[in-house]
Amino acid sequence: MRQSTYLAQTLRDIPSDAEVKSHQLMLRAGLIRQSTSGVYSFLPIGLKVLKKVENIVREEMDKAGAQEMLLPSIQPSELWKASGRWEEYGAELMRIKDRHDREFALGPTHEEVITTIVRDDVRSYKKLPMTLYQIQTKFRDERRPRFGILRGREFLMKDAYSFDTSFEGLDESYQKMYSAYCNIFTRCELNYRAVVADSGAMGGKDTHEFMVLSTVGEDTIAYSDSSDFAANIEIAPVNVTYEKSSDQPKALGKMETPSKKTIEEVANFLSIAKEDCIKSMLFLVDEKPVLVLVRGDHQVNEVKIKHLFDARSVELAGEAETEKWLSTEAGYIGPVNVDDNITIIADKAVEVMVNAVCGANEQDAHFINVNPGRDFNVSNYADLRNIQEGDPSPDGKGTIKFKEGIEVGHVFKLGTKYSEALNAQFLDENGKTQPMVMGSYGIGVSRTVAAIIEEHHDENGIVWPISVAPFHIHLMPINVKQDEQRKLSEELYESLNNKRYEVLYDDRAERPGVKFKDADLFGLPLRITVGKKAEEGILEVKIRKTGEVLEVHRDNLLEIIE
Ligand code: ATP
Ligand code: MG
Ligand code: MG
Ligand code: MG
Prior knowledge:
Blueprint: H1 21-28, E1 32-36, E2 39-42, H2 44-63, E3 67-68, E4 74-76, H3 77-83, H4 85-88, E5 94-97, E6 103-106, H5 111-121, E7 130-139, E8 154-164, H6 167-187, E9 192-196, E10 207-213, E11 219-224, E12 230-232, H7 263-275, E13 278-285, E14 288-295, E15 302-310, H8 319-329, E16 342-345, H9 349-359, E17 400-415, H10 417-421, E18 425-427, E19 433-435, E20 437-444, H11 445-455, E21 457-458, E22 461-462, E23 473-477, H12 483-498, E24 503-505, H13 512-522, E25 526-530, E26 538-543, E27 549-553, H14 557-561
Parallel strand pairs: 3-7, 23-24, 23-25
Antiparallel strand pairs: 1-2, 4-6, 5-6, 7-8, 8-20, 9-10, 10-17, 11-12, 11-17, 13-14, 14-15, 15-16, 17-20, 18-19, 21-22, 25-26, 26-27
Helix pairs in contact: 1-11, 2-6, 2-11, 7-9
Bound molecules: adenosine-5'-triphosphate (ATP) and magnesium ion (3 copies).
């Protein structure tokens, strides 16, 4: 590529609205340009990197036996209503209407769409297991888009979905994706950890996030310094607070009793909950104490009731137990038979919440028969709730350290949630109808690009790992007006291209200082400088990563760079 006509305009100054290094460098090196909040164009050099990451992802998905397809971004609201997520997903779901006033979502994820396709096309166990994936633009109206493409409102994701005939099968499909993810992030030269993540009602071990360790990460990871233990502390802490009142129901022991709330008080509570990320409250419904944990999830106009359950339905063995339960378990115990999050949109909040809570006291309503140990994993991560740095690791090996992480991937055992909601069944060996058992697996492809830059840069610019570098070589005549230099450069450009190296050829008539500065900013692994010694056929090869410089005769160049 000839740089003189290449759309890659570098910026000298650090753009004032770019807080983190990857964002600054992507703007300065001309990889991306902002269109509007959280929405970016990829310029040619940025797209090259995106494609490299995409191809690594594609190769590893294919190797794991997944089949690539492409699903639509425009998804009918009916599908989302069928799964319950039209309401549940809240303000993050981008919604549009067509000319007939029909409603659609711009896909933030594709469980609904893929499930209906597999439902209609797969009937027999003989076709299963099957894992399908796509690499496609996703839309999420993030409350706070920031850090450039790290948190965009339009971004590139790889999403995969597995369909199995049993939970054992799901375990296998999950493991394959997990291994593929390890390969992908290793090939991207990222320092990552797979951490236990929040799976709501599903229990702690059924989902992992792939976190790139980085100070700009928005998640905090608790990990052991001498074992594989690592978890997102998101799954742990919730501040349990409750209101003062006079009488004390027996089951709740020493705990202060909640008072009956008026609708206004509940509304007020919900608005507070919107500010803080997570809050909880006890109040009475039908004279029964009900603990509500509310979680505002980066969104302005909604709150999510993370877990709702009737205190009555948890077996409480006495005061000590009660307190323990409240202080250690309540934060992440999820009720079964209930969707993980119930999303409440602004003005409907009070009504919906009060209904939902009442429902908890009725037969066959959402929140019945919660059984710790059977329905969710109590022991596994109980110690995490108030975990601090320096505590012993829950697995008994080493002590806990904290680190920030960027979530670049997420693997998740869905079970039958979507197959049941959307009727995706198969006939088993005995001719019996069963729901398919699903998993879902995401990678933020564009976010990964930014994470790579966060990890691979220095004070002069990006330092691309070879696996994702937009070009391998930056070919740089110091003075293109000098015949010898230009001639030798042209020859090298041609022969390197013929050898299938990807070469960015700085054929601009710029001052050397400008060219070198740009080269450092672009951060290609090798720079080949053609200068005064061109007449003797001598070049300078500089390794961007180490700064090492070698003088090489043109005849030996290929040997050296291989
Ligand atoms: P986050 O916690 O950062 O909001 P998420 O848990 O909502 O992410 P998932 O639903 O797990 O995201 O989606 C799969 C992957 O898509 C994530 O692991 C992440 O790498 C990527 N991703 C999610 N949201 C964004 C975004 N707004 N911009 C860029 N990438 C994103
Ligand atoms: Mg999110
Ligand atoms: Mg997340
Ligand atoms: Mg996630």
